[in-house]
Structure formats: C-alpha cells, structure tokens
Design brief:
The chain contains two helices and no strands. With 41 residues, it is an all-alpha fold. It has one domain.
C-alpha cells in the first residue's frame, strides 16, 4: 500500500533527476503546492 510519504520520496527523487534541466524550479513549485494541499483533501 502506497502512502503520501512514499509519493513524496518519488517526487524528491524525480526532482533531483531534473536538476540538470530548467524545469526544476517549476517542478519544486508544483511539488510544494501539491504537498501542502495533501492535508486539505
């Protein structure tokens, strides 16, 4: 069973993978936005 923590770990790993690209900033912006809205669902 997947948890929010597992999903966040995958997001972080994907973020580090994108460190070579220019989309990193937008990725982290979306990541933190989605992460903060987890508790509202």
């Amino acid at each position: 069973m997947k948890t929010v923590f597992d999903d966040s770990l995958e997001f972080v790993g994907y973020g580090f993978y994108l460190l070579k690209g220019r989309k990193t900033f937008y990725f982290w912006k979306a990541f933190f936005y989605n992460f903060s809205s987890y508790g509202k669902v």
